[in-house]
Write a structure and sequence with these properties.
oxidoreductase; D-isomer_DH_CS1; Rossmann fold; oxidoreductase activity; 10% strand; 6 helices; 3-phosphoglycerate dehydrogenase; mainly alpha; globular
């Protein structure tokens, strides 16, 4: 009897990483707000809802495990973003290998407009 607990580390990591990046882009591109405005008012003031390009922007990732490393990969190679990462379990070289620059948590929070 009891409850079976299973760790499926990495089983859905790619799906979660893709969803994370999709939500990040949705926020930076104002997709939800623009959609709601279009449905309600039948028009959009481009200056109000203009999104920002991802390329060249900085994203901060806390933890470069199964999901974090995939998010870093998509952001660097797919979107041309700069990735800062805080992971107390990885060396700076390990972070670099996973596509991110290792920084302490305070630096990450201070220099990452996207977390």
């Amino acid at each position: 009897a009891g409850i079976l607990v299973v760790n499926q580390s990495g089983a859905n990591a790619q799906a979660v990483a893709e969803h994370t990046v999709a939500m990040m882009l949705s926020l930076t591109k104002n997709i939800v707000q623009t959609d709601r405005s279009l449905r309600k008012e039948r028009g959009v003031d481009r200056e109000v809802f203009k999104g920002r390009n991802a390329q060249g922007r900085t994203v901060g990732i806390i933890g470069l495990g199964n999901v974090g490393r995939r998010v870093a990969h998509i952001c660097t190679l797919g979107l041309g973003m700069r990735v800062l990462a805080y992971d107390p379990y990885l060396s700076a070289a390990d972070c670099q290998e996973r596509g991110a620059t290792a920084v302490d948590l305070d630096t990450l929070l201070a220099h990452s407009p996207i977390l």
